[in-house]
Amino acid sequence: MGIFDFLSKAIKPTEDLAEERSKAPESFWGKFSKIIAGKTTVDSDVLDRLEELLISSDVGVPTTIKIIGAIEQRIARDKYLTTNELNRVLRFEAEKLLHISPALEVGITHSAAQSHPHVILVVGVNGVGKTTTIGKLAAQFVAEGKKVMLGAADTFRAAAIEQLTIWGNRVGAVVVSKAMQADPSSVAHEAVQQGIRNGVHVIIIDTAGRLHTKVHLVNELAKVKRTIQKCLPGAPHEVLLVLDGTTGQNAFLQTEAFTAVVQVTGIVVTKLDGTSKGGMILGIVDQFSIPVTYIGIGEKAEDLIPFDAHTFIDVLFQKW
């Protein structure tokens, strides 16, 4: 059973995501309803206010322009558009952005059993929930009956090594670690070598939070990836970029920085259980052509669920 098959059986994404997103102060639908209140057809005022709403929801300017342009084309073709139709058209255009070409999904492995060991490199800046995400993934793999090994390659923070070790002990995954300030590449090398020798199914490697302003750390990340490739040709099989759903436009800058160094195959969006607007998901997928593979909606292991475009759009436009 693959990652997505397991999670789909274990979790009810629509109910869970709707419940957590409802904690936000006001839904996207609530704000959208105010825009069309008292209107019967879509005019320039409605489009201007919709544009402001999309941008304020962290969709991003380029993606907002694309959505508004599609609506304007529809109006030009049909001569007018009712406000009831606007809701349907907006949903259609938003969901269309999330269905990227299958050719772009080559790097996503739906079943870790296809390769032994299956190596996942997890990247992202400090504070986004990388280590917690790794722990949740490990827990779900272990629940599938797979042998899991974790590589603590974030050697710049003692707390990161400690946190990963706690997760490993909690879920039953072996943790490979070294002392603070040790070469991260050496940790990755040891984890992969041990994984090969011991017949491990899945190896998940943590990395230090790196910002685009820290050139030496960015270079270190590239070195970690090269080391993994030398140990096991074709690895890492997945590179997951973890983004905090509450950071808005900073998420775009982080994605740009990491994709310049490593080939990111999937994005994990965390902290969608608070006041996150989630609109950045539309913009990130559209502008970088990288699929969102998981979303985090809580602290428990089962709160990491596979991303489903249709479910996400349903929740975004839920009439609360």
The largest pleated sheet is described as:
8 strands, mixed
| Average pLDDT level | 83
Write the element-wise H/E pattern from the N-terminal end onward: HHHHHHEHEHEHEHEHEHEEH
CATH architecture of the domain at 109-264: 3-Layer(aba) Sandwich
Portion of residues in beta strands equals: 5-15%
The N- and C-terminal alpha carbons lie at a distance of: 36 Å
Residue ranges: pLDDT <50 for 5 or more in a row?
Answer: 1-13, 101-113
Question: Spatial order of the strands in the main sheet?
Answer: 3-2-4-1-5-6-7-8
Shape, per Cα inertia axes: elongated
Query: Using only CA atoms, what is the Rg?
Result: 21 Å
The count of strands amounts to 8
- How many alpha or pi helices? 13
CATH topology of the domain at 109-264: Rossmann fold
Class by helix and strand content?
alpha/beta
So what's the CATH class of the domain at 109-264?
A: Alpha Beta
* Helix proportion: 40-55%
CATH superfamily of the domain at 109-264: P-loop containing nucleotide triphosphate hydrolases
